Amino acid sequence: MTSKTNAGESPREVAIEAVDLVKTYPNDIRALDGISLAVEAGTIFGLLGPNGAGKSTTVKILTTLSRADSGRAAVMGIDVDRQPDRVRRMIGLVGQHGAVDSEATGRENLVLEGRLFGMSGASLKRRVDELLDRFGVAEAADRIVKTWSGGMQRKLDVASGLVHQPRVLFLDEPTTGLDPEARADLWAEVLRLSDEGLTILLTTHYLEEADRLAGQVAIIDRGRIVARGTPEALKSELRGDAIVVELSDSVRNGHAAAVLELLDGVHEPSIAGRTLRARADDGARSVPAVLAALDAAGVGVASVTVARPSLDDVYLRHTGRAYRPENQEATR
Amino acid sequence: MTVLAQSAYLTGRHLRFFLRQPWFIGISLVQPVIWLLLFGALFQNVVQIPGFTVGTSYIDYIVPGVLVMTALFSCGWSGMSIIEDLDRSIMDRLLATPIHRSAIIVGLNLYSLVSFGIQALIIGGLALILGARFPGGLLGYAVLTVCAMLVGATVAAFSDAMALLLRQRESVIGINTLLTLPLTFLSGAFMPLALVPAWIGTVATFNPVNWAVAAGREALTASPDWSFVLIRMALLVGLAALATAWATRTFRAYQRSI
Hints:
heterodimer; A: about 325 residues; six-stranded mixed sheet; four-stranded antiparallel sheet; 12 helices; B: mainly alpha; about 80% helix
């Protein structure tokens, strides 16, 4: 495998770089409208957004499957357009829809993948056994993949992307359609791979997934990146926690919001029906004051909840739309 | 690693699938058997038409036609595998490996040719049982099979290219049907060209299917005119190579469109 990078170099080396990628499909749909991103080697980068936002198109360009109309991209410093074969040797791709051959056995899938990368003999066999073990599918290795569970097939899919020991792994919506247990399982595996130094670019429409796994995220909407940073930084851009109070009656609602205006550390109170919302610098500490103030004003309270800001809130703020992956899936 | 090795690995993948589906082998054999029995019975008496000078029985005459037609039908489905791989994203996975794009086409089409080879053996055996005699012997039959394979490789590449460009099963089915039957009937597959309207004869001169049928039929005679055979085989090799190169190029159009 060719490589121009060595252990001696700076740990802040950029593994994936895209500059101003533009892609328009023949039907005049602008899929990418100037995407730029940089992923540090050894980190997990989350590309977040609904279907059709441009996540998969970005991945296809970075993995040499598709070509951008303009802009440039490089993986480990190698231009994807000019030297696609060199890029292909460095990357593993785990596509959106479980790209394993379901009519072949698990072992056959991995062996074929290795052979296509020029591996053979004992070293290929060793690598395949190692991956089957690692992903906990060794027992099923010689069974036809269509008899495997969805979670196992997904693991095989990830394993297929790793046979040739890539430096960078692209995971395009790796947990879509998995049950929660299989999802948690895969998350653990992704974190383990990252600990071993693999650079991972992950696309997802699960905010929770990006929050859990990614050190850096970019939110992509209609072919543009609308926000980027660490999940924490993006969340802290929003002012504090969300406080939601359900009122027990609706008599003095307008008054209720006004009461909260007067409290220190509580912002943006608003009321809709019997639901009173506000943001607080520190939600847990503000609750007693909020309850006391409402009580003093004679407003009855049915319940109160405090939530840390989530990437949902970040998404809402940057795109002006609430995030509803279930609707997105229904349209696929 | 050479393109051929890469192709062979991919051929292996398709062959494993084929061998795991015994009914698949069965179905692929039914069709040529039906052609042979049906056409053989239907046209039994055409040998009595004055001017029908080739061979003594119609079954002798139609074996090359049935074989080439089977190659067309069998290889014309090649594009369906491409569409299945596209649908299951296996194509993306293959394209993300450093193999040469032509290996994907060649690997798949080699598989089509191997499975056609099995059909050719069965057809040959059945024809003998039905009383066909091949003065050209085993060599003649092998040459005929290779001629059929060369047309098959061309049709398979065409089918692959259409699959990559249109990405719909219906298109592959439609083109396969539109191509196979006219090409077969605009040739000497089932009727000597001396007995058909002149324009069909003229079209047949430029029809690769007719080149394969004529060369294969010549090879089955007692003393074949080998230059007649080899010229047609050379043309067929060139055509298969062109079609394969074209199919490989369609990956670029596919790449632009995704």
